[in-house]
Fold each of these.
Amino acid sequence: MSLDPKPSSSSRGLEGVIALETAICDIDGQKGELIYRGYDIDDLARHCSFEEVAWLLWNTTLPEPDELLRLDRMLQSERVLPPMILDVMSMTPEDADPMAVLRTGVSAMAHFDTQADDASAEANYRKAVRLTARMPMLIAAFNRLRNGHQPLTPLKGASTAANFLYQLDGKEPGEAAVRIFDACLVLHAEHGLNASTFAARVIGATLSDVYSAISGAIGALKGSLHGGANLRVMQMLAEIDRSGMDPRSWVLDRLQQKERIMGFGHRVYKTLDPRAAILREMSGKLAEERGEKKWFDMSLTLMDVMETEKGLYPNVDFFSASVYGTLGIPMDLFTPIFAMSRVTGWTAHLMEQWSDNRLIRPRAAYSGPRSLSTGR
């Protein structure tokens, strides 16, 4: 039996390696371009709802009015958590990491889904809708339970964005808040073969189930090098605020000490992240309307210093932090919000993987010793 030739070279972190083909998303890091199914992200974020983008990712085209209505009704019908899931969350320690809670909740949901192991395309589509509807419920329910409140019943006829903001504090959000939060969900819905999406596709390629793959993706997103950047940006802004220092002086001092400034630079983009450009504009409008410009103004100062001193541009996490901060969302929910949006992209990739499946099995270049002997 002959073995395949050994790979002649390797790339740390698989950087630049083409692992598979996809029709879902394309990123041009040099131009600062992000495309979902052929549509530029700027166009989608400004003119389409999160639900329309979910349909696009799952079905390859934007929905007709009747199709969007059908999806809205499916999402509304699925915004009910099994009582046992709520029981598990009620017994979860108040200081538990919300990403760990979300991971556990998604995995546990499989036990209450009669189609959990149904691998048909129709069943997998329904599970994609179900997870998109229920993950925001899980996050909001845990947040209320840990603060001594009972989860709320979803608003009838409201969007994913409006429902989530309402379930955090029981107050119906204003139009501006819903619009910008909906745009944030659109901007985070998909981003190519990132770590969590690749993890989901690797699991899916084994012909495991949707819940296993999405639990694995959440586990990857939980890592500090992937999904937690906007949390650390907000922590940085809060630290600057507590210090009483001028933001410009604060960041110059940190740069002099060779410290990393969170929210700048990206593994793919070599110019301004197109999502950051959109959020910068929307964040400014939200801050103006709410009369709460502290976080936004501070962000602009840091952006100016980093571009001047380091030639670095902000990524999407940088301005999403100030948006969520202005909306009053708890900091430790920032990454779960990322997940409740990205689940649309994750499930789109799973469905694409299963449409022409092949086990993902790369090789490793061995770098250990040879010809050792036990001497026995």
Amino acid sequence: MTTAYHIKASELSVDFINALKTLFRNKDLFITVEAEMDETEYLLASEANRKMLLRRIKDVEEGKNIVTVNLKDL
């Protein structure tokens, strides 16, 4: 049997663990913890994105390819 729970770490409690114990009794459990990626991790996960983002960061540090927008023009 497979059961998936989507829960925030802050919501984990003794009550939740006890509920699992009651539900599954003496069965062996295989627990996998998978945390969602934050935006930076997601963008850096692709080799092409990582190279492009690092190149853009370097451009900003060097003052290159910067576009300035006047907020009044928006």
